[in-house]
Amino acid sequence: MASKDSVSFTVKIALLLCVVCSIFISSAAVILKPFQEANKTLDRNKNILAAAGMFNPDVNSDSEVDGLFAQFTPRIVDLNSGEFLSDAQMADLGINPVSYDQRAAINDPQLSDAIPGEEDIASLKRRVRYATVYLVEGSNGEIEDIVLPVSGYGLWGTMYGYLALEGDGNTVKGIGFYEQKETPGLGGEVTNPRWKGLWPGKEVYDDNGNVALSVIKGVGQGVHQVDGLAGASLTSRGVDNLIEYWMGPKGFGPFLKNLTNS
């Protein structure tokens, strides 16, 4: 019988502990995954609701999110045509509005394309072919709210958020960024409620249908300008660029035109 002080005994005990720990960690990961996915969905839905002015963390609780979000219908849009994907098209692609991960799709050559340098004003490098939009319909079937995912490079990294529009596809209801790496107190003010409060009522397009909404240095004037962030010109420019890109012909421009003309 091997001595308990022997090297082989020590190695066996160490290996046994490693196996037990690995089983424990793997089991914990499997058990926790549904909770992690649920929290991820909750966070996404809260951000969509907040952008549309339908959720205020100072007033609403997480328990209200499911009921509020039930007003939305998620749809997948072909960004090239601006049309909704049919059930058959989604089945062929293996995607659906509930589980489609747009950020993961950006790395899939079957679901995304490289953006030519001269078109990449938001410094995205790639653009998905299909995007999930969130719609609220009124009792008469008309679209009342539209929430669109937007992204673009700021000073230190890509900013991810949602832009909410009224049913006319032009008037802004709100904006929110749920992930950003900007400097706290400067570019990080993209999450400041005061600055976000400047957006509702602004208009994306001019009378000719061109993207006119911009973030300017200083104080914005009229319905097409939003105040820039003090001391954060590159972040302000990043927000301005992502608005121009995603509301333009390579982003949601064709979709919004189709939606409002239908």
Please supply descriptive tags for the structure shown above.
7 helices; six-stranded antiparallel sheet; globular; alpha+beta; 10 strands
List the SSEs and their pairings:
Elements: H1 7-51, H2 65-69, E1 72-78, E2 83-84, H3 87-93, H4 102-105, E3 112-114, E4 126-128, E5 130-137, E6 143-153, E7 158-166, E8 172-179, H5 193-196, E9 214-216, E10 225-227, H6 233-246, H7 253-261
Parallel strand pairs: 9-10
Antiparallel strand pairs: 1-2, 1-5, 3-4, 5-6, 6-7, 7-8
Protein architecture, described:
With 262 residues, the chain is α+β, with helices and mostly antiparallel strands. The protein has two domains: 1-69, no CATH class; 71-261, no CATH class. The protein is built from seven helices and ten strands. Strands 2-1-5-6-7-8 form a six-stranded antiparallel β-sheet. Strands 3-4 form a two-stranded antiparallel ribbon. A two-stranded parallel ribbon has the order 9-10. The protein is globular, with a radius of gyration of 23 Å. The N and C termini lie far apart (84 Å). The relative contact order is 0.11. The model has no long low-confidence stretch (mean pLDDT 91).
